[in-house]
Amino acid sequence: VEKLFEVAVNGSDEDKVSAATILCGATLLRGWNFQEHTVRLVVKLLSSSDLVDLSGRESQLVKHGPMLNVILTGISPVDYVPIFSFHGLIPELAAALMAICEVFGRMSPSVSWSLRTGEEMSAHTVFSNAFILLLRLWKFNHPPLEYCIMGDGAPVGSQLTPEYLLLLRNSQVLSVRSSAKNRNNQKQLPITSSPTSEHPIFMDSFPKLKLWYRQHQACLASTLSGLAHGTPVHKNVDSLLNLMFRKANKGSNSIGSLSGSSSISNSSGPGDDSHLWPQFSAWEILEAVPFVVDAALTACSHGRLFPRELATGLKDLTDFLPASLATIVTATGVDVPRLVAGGSTLGTLPLPLAAFVSLTITYKLDKASERFLNLAGPALENLAASCPWPSMPIVAALWTQKVKRWSDFLIFSASRTVFHHNNDAVIQLLRSCFTTTLGMSSTTSVCSCGGIASLLGHGFGSHCSGGLSPVAPGILYLRIFRCIKDCSILAEDILSLLMFSVKDIAETTVSKHRSDKLKKTKYVMRHGQVSLASAMTQVKVAASLGATLVWLSGGTALVQSLFQEMLPSWFLSVQNLEQGGASGGTVYKLGGHALAYFAVYCGMFAWGIDPTPVSRRRERVMWSHFEFLASALDGKISLGCDLSLWRAYVSCFLGLVVECTPCWMHEVDVKVLKRLSRGLRHWKEDELAFALLRRAGPEAIGAAAEMILSSDW
């Protein structure tokens, strides 16, 4: 593999292309035993030796244009991005792509290379392949959900910023540099171990990309502002509009641009029109595209441009600069109507969505178009899902006509859009997750044997007569949870569903066994023990599912809210779990254990069990929760919940912390632990009270010794 890398760097132009092709083939995708080396070499080939100095055509990147394009197209399929992510190379790859975009985006399309196939490859081609892959990295490697700004539709902050990617890259470089100083055999390290550049990289190194990203954020945040007449951008907009719609509506009709001066040219002729397009750089075109699309949509909405002509013009633009597809996916200032509760809409598509659907359908389903559809597909799905019903079913029907083998997936995508508009449907889906996992689903045709198999199923497809087989609720939730608008309310609903599940477990498991008593009295106690053990197993499963749903939906911020707000409020309020049931006090004891496992699982998912926490939040959150428990045991807080539930929660929670996460106690004041220990001894939980102090670290040894001396042990 390293020999191939040397050929790709120092060989002839043809040898470079050949070596790069081999490295991006099965060597990278399927060579598990040497994939780690190959993936790093590929990133090195994409990177300039000095990313800080990107001086246009003199850059080293320009010399390797054909080889870079082979690599970019080679790693563009969807299977490759997870490989780079698995090896932690997304930040390094993103930095390399930013440099390629910065350099090739400045060039005129007249800058080209002759390939050995006889074709010409322009700078626009290299730029587009790098730019679209870069945008896909932002979407793939998303930040924690607590950094997102949730609102109507997709969260604005759901994609990584270029600055954040560079921050991760610089952090990795610093870490490698620090570890290298501690190695005695540094000179013997292979070439795959060192980063491409040891210097930090910032957005100021990519001024063109930085300018475009600011415009991109502005387009997402609000409608487009007016474009001043006579500016270079205004002239570029006019030129692009004239060429895109030169064959449309000849004569008096015109496409009124934002300045009112853009009209459709009357010139049109047969044959290849590529020579008619202006020699703008890619960055100049991307700067003009939002205004171009907005003007075209406005003209179409006023009847001055037919929809077919709109789609054809947009396709001509994306053929000239494929990277413009990324900006077309952006909001263009034309309001998209939303679903009104209780209302109804006609079966039509809003104009921006209709134009985008028409544009995507024009692409051929071949390898060359795959990388563009991989970017446009998710955007189309998200846009259709946010539009009024039945927008997504219409889109699915149109695409099914083009690709019938995608019908199952498109039907599935269309059916799940109801969760984007209806919160009650989300609650029903969560309830289905609990019932199917616990094997209590009797009203649906989904497998009711319980467990992970019922929760996640086996995918989806036309496996039954008359249409699709039922989709497992867990798979469905994985596809819709990122679009849920209020995660705080969602956590409360999950907590309520957990307790309802405990009630069902108590009634269907414990009470059922109790009512089915054996004739011989000596077997009754033994039978009851078995039923309680079975119920406890179900309770643990329900708690682990609830914690998974909370962590998946809201991350550490939602877990923090659970410990500091939701659980204390739940204990302070009156909870009647026995209403309508015949399970006695057992439901409260099971409920306390369920909440304890639920809380511990959530804390494990969010902050881990290592002595060194992954976040400083753990110390603050654990301190507040332990303080709440101690204050309640001291009698300083009046509880509203059943005391048997409270006692079961405290005993089980502290027992799990002692056995599974003792490092959590190291972050709590010893005085608080001593108060908890006194409360446990008051409940005759002497062993747990002693274990709490014994596992709390050196600072609590004195308190543990005092406890031993003051007891009858």
UniProtKB/TrEMBL annotation:
Species this chain originates from: Zizania palustris
Gene Ontology terms describing biological process: regulation of phenylpropanoid metabolic process
Coiled coil: none
GO CC entries: mediator complex
Name recorded for this polypeptide: Mediator of RNA polymerase II transcription subunit 33A
Taxonomy, superkingdom: Eukaryota
